């Protein structure tokens, strides 16, 4: 049997990754030029590893770091509106200690949850190329291998959902037909299986939250479902 990878080592491998030259150039340029509101800050500007509880039962999977969010702060879903929208729902279900995600030193801790992304570098226009998604896939595979307690994946958006199916296929789970992406949809692998369950959700981007396509109540329901499937007890 292959030894379970160390989460610390996996994080170091992600941060040091240079597989996608286009993304590395873009992230470095964003970190150099900066946004006016953050002119005095030092940007992270490197690939962003996952964050959370090593004993997580719930894995939250997003698309990629935001150019002036995680690419600035160095922590996934941190420093932008998407992160705050997500963290409010995770806090409501006992998975996060505070309802905001502003910067890496804000005191936020995750309980029974871990957050990662399908792509670890901020892509131009939030649109990674297919080859870049493929290049990043081994990072997620090793991260999940280092999180043996995960029982459910919350996939935020289609790209995250596709990343889940890639993981599932690699572990021998390949349903035909594959369930279509739909907000709130649930997939439970056939037993016995080495694959976590899946709960699908729209991504908490401003494009979705500002238009009402994704509401707070809708995201709350997704996490209530995930917590129930994972068998996690909400924090007091």
How is this structure best summarized?
The chain is of the alpha/beta class and 236 residues long.
Describe the protein in words:
With 236 residues, the chain is α/β, with parallel strands linked by helices. α4 packs across α8 (216-230). It has one domain (7-230): Uracil-DNA glycosylase-like domain (Uracil-DNA Glycosylase, subunit E). 36% of the residues lie in helices and 10% in strands. It has helices at residues 7-15, 21-33, 70-73, 81-92, 130-145, 158-170, 206-209, 216-230, and strands at 51-52, 58-62, 113-117, 152-156, 186-187, 197-201. The longest helix is centred in the middle third of the chain and has 16 residues, at 130-145. A six-stranded mixed beta sheet has the order 1-3-2-4-6-5, sandwiched between helices.
Topology:
Elements: H1 7-15, H2 21-33, E1 51-52, E2 58-62, H3 70-73, H4 81-92, E3 113-117, H5 130-145, E4 152-156, H6 158-170, E5 186-187, E6 197-201, H7 206-209, H8 216-230
H and E order? HHEEHHEHEHEEHH
Content of β-strand: 5-15%
Query: What is the overall number of helices?
Result: 8
CATH superfamily grouping? Uracil-DNA glycosylase-like domain
**Could you name the CATH topology?**
Uracil-DNA Glycosylase, subunit E
Shape: globular
Number of domains: 1
Cα-based radius of gyration, to the nearest Å: 17 Å
Number of strands: 6
Regarding CATH, which class? Alpha Beta
Largest sheet: 6 strands, mixed
What is the end-to-end distance? Answer: 39 Å
**CATH-scheme architecture:** 3-Layer(aba) Sandwich
Flag low-confidence runs.
none
Helix content: 25-40%
- Summing up helix and strand content along with how strands pair, one would put the structural category as alpha/beta
Determine the mean pLDDT: 95
Q: Could you give the order of strands across the largest sheet?
A: 1-3-2-4-6-5
């Amino acid at each position: 049997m292959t030894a379970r990878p160390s989460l610390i080592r996996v994080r170091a491998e992600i941060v040091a990754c240079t597989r996608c030259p286009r993304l590395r150039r873009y992230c470095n340029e964003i970190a150099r030029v900066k946004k006016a509101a953050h002119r005095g800050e030092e940007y992270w500007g490197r690939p962003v590893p996952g964050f959370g509880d090593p004993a997580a039962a719930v894995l939250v999977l997003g698309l990629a770091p935001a150019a002036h969010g995680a690419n600035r702060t160095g922590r996934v879903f941190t420093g932008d509106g998407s992160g705050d929208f997500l963290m409010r729902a995770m806090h409501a279900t006992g998975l996060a200690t505070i309802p905001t995600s502003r910067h890496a030193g804000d005191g936020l801790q995750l309980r029974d949850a871990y957050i990662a992304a399908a792509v670890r570098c901020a892509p131009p226009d939030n649109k990674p190329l297919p080859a870049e998604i493929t290049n990043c896939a081994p990072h997620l595979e090793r991260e999940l291998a280092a999180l043996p307690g995960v029982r459910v994946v919350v996939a935020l958006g289609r790209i995250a959902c596709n990343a889940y199916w890639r993981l599932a296929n690699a572990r021998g789970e390949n349903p035909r037909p594959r369930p279509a992406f739909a907000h709130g949809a649930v997939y439970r692998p056939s037993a016995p299986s080495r694959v976590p369950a899946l709960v699908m959700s729209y991504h908490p981007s401003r494009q979705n939250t500002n238009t009402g396509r994704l509401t707070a109540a809708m995201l709350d329901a997704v996490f209530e479902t995930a917590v129930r499937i994972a068998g996690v007890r909400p924090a007091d």
